[in-house]
Amino acid sequence: MEGDQQASDTGQRVAERIVGLVNQLISFILTSGITCILALIIVPTIHESGHAAACIIQGGAVTHWQPLPFGTEADTACSTGFTPFLCAAGSLASIAAWLLCTYVYSRYATRLGTGRLWNLTATLWFWWSLWVSGELSMDALHAYSDVPLHHDAGYFVHLTGINPVVASITILAVIAILGVPFVRVARQTLATEGFGG
User: Across the chain, what does the average pLDDT equal?
Assistant: First the structure.
């Protein structure tokens, strides 16, 4: 009888552990999926808002603003046409917003504790960081593109006459510089709780 009770207790503990692990896995998948989609909404919206702000600063009117890339390419059109400032404003807005968010996140996220809100915030910051890094990487690549391909970096290079190699190296240097706060904050996050766990 005693052996049966121990086996039953052991079986129950194993079952509870499996249920706990499955719940953690489901939570991780949901958190990662939701925050990935949120980041996919946030990054282009900030980027296109940067173009819209540049248009208004230049005295123009925003004639088209489509921040979400679902189904088509995100796009902003300005009555003043393309200028180097307008072309650069999207990525500059993304960088500024990410740096501000990273600063606030690094200072205040630990106050959230280590529950679900922490996991959601940490994972959203992580995905946002990856999307911004990807955006800048594509800018470095698109510096070599032809203007009709609707790439900001290609237009910027065309309008300024700057060498595409110089533009790409500059963008890659910015990515490397942004890697410093990313690594610092990611290390802090992993030491606290982790991403989406």
Answer: 84
Residue 38 has pLDDT above 60, yes or no: yes
Kindly tell me the sign of the dihedral angle through the C-alpha atoms of 73, 78, 84, 90: negative
In sequence order, what DSSP letters do the residues of 51-98 get, joined into one string?
HHHHHHHTT--EEEEE---SSS--EEEETT---HHHHHHHHHHHHHHH
Q: In terms of DSSP bridges, do strands 62-66 and 75-78 run parallel, antiparallel, or are they unpaired?
A: antiparallel
List the domain boundaries for the chain: 2-192
- Tokens representing 181 are 């706060």
Coil, helix or strand for 62?
Answer: strand
In sequence order, what are the residues at sequence separation of 6 or more whose Cβ sits closer than 8 angstroms to the Cβ of residue 192?
109, 110, 114, 118, 122
Which residues are bridge partners to 76 per DSSP? Answer: 65
**Cβ density class 17-43: b for 16+ within 10 Å, e for less:** eeeeeeeeeeebeebbeebbeebbebb
**Is the separation of the CB atoms in 64 and 75 below 8 Å?**
yes
Q: Which residue has the tokens 């959601």?
A: 120
Q: Which residues contact 18 (CB under 8 A, 6 or more apart)?
A: none
Tokens at 89, concatenated: 């404003």
Token match 């991780």: residue? 28
